[in-house]
């Protein structure tokens, strides 16, 4: 966990919760909570904007125009913003109205040939985090027609910090349209499939401890 800060990170959180889940002497309720946290954290780890930040709170302070929907400001927050689009709009656009089970079947069929290589690579949390970082750099930020420059490192607790990062990003007039959505959608589908396979690997490992 060499890259975790003093406040910890999702890699350490996954390790800690996995240890609780494997602990047969831990209270049942605590182990059940650990399972819930693992499901959540492994999913988070595969969302590119959880693996990178440009002093913009993981894209939360990057207002975007999403097709015809213009960004709006409220109390130094913005909607739509880059993070939310990757969390919600992009995955939902790939579902084409399918329910979760149907979409899972679609992803299984699409990525079936990749499952074995992903499994053979083993559980490597830091590698998975770097994959998200690279996808954020190359696609989440990199697929815009207008390049998003690298910000100078600074503490950011709200979108008003770092010389008003939210307003500065708003004035870049970043637009997510069909070309961006197609690139992002392909990444999102792969990351969802990887998260599912890798979560299963982690839970299978925990099951060996008799949970």
Write structural notes for this entry.
The protein has helices spanning 10-22, 28-45, 82-95, 100-120, 125-140, 161-170, 178-207; strands spanning 65-66, 72-74, 77-79, 175-176. Strands 1-4 form a two-stranded parallel sheet. Strands 2-3 form a two-stranded antiparallel sheet. It has 211 residues and is mainly α. It is globular, with a radius of gyration of 18 Å. It has seven helices and four strands, in the order ααβββααααβα. The protein is 58% helix and 5% strand.
Provide the gyration radius in Å: 18 Å
**Helix fraction?**
55-70%
Global shape: globular
Question: What is the number of E strands?
Answer: 4
**Overall pLDDT:** 94
Main sheet: which strands, in order across? 1-4
How does the major sheet shape up? 2 strands, parallel
Distance linking N and C termini: 25 Å
Question: Uncertain segments of ≥5 residues (pLDDT<50)?
Answer: none
Helical run tally: 7
- What percentage of the residues does DSSP assign to strands (E)? under 5%
N-to-C SSE string, H for helix and E for strand: HHEEEHHHHEH
What is the SS-derived class?
mainly alpha
């Amino acid at each position: 966990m060499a890259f975790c800060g003093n406040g910890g990170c999702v890699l350490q959180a996954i390790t800690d919760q996995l240890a609780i889940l494997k602990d047969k002497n831990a209270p049942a309720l605590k182990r059940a909570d650990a399972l819930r946290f693992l499901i959540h954290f492994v999913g988070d780890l595969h969302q590119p904007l959880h693996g990178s930040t440009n002093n913009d709170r993981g894209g939360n302070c990057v207002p975007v125009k999403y097709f015809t929907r213009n960004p709006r400001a409220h109390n130094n927050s913005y909607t739509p913003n880059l993070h939310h689009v990757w969390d919600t709009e992009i995955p939902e656009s790939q579902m084409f109205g399918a329910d979760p089970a149907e979409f899972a079947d679609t992803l299984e069929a699409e990525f079936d040939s990749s499952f074995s290589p992903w499994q053979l690579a083993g559980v490597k949390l830091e590698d998975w985090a770097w994959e998200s970082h690279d996808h954020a750099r190359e696609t989440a930020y990199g697929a815009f027609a207008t390049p998003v420059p690298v910000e100078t490192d600074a503490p950011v607790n709200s979108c008003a910090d770092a010389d008003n990062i939210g307003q500065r990003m708003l004035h870049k007039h970043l637009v997510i349209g069909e070309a961006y959505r197609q690139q992002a959608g392909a990444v999102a589908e792969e990351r969802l499939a990887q998260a599912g396979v890798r979560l299963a690997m982690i839970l299978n490992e925990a099951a060996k401890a008799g949970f």
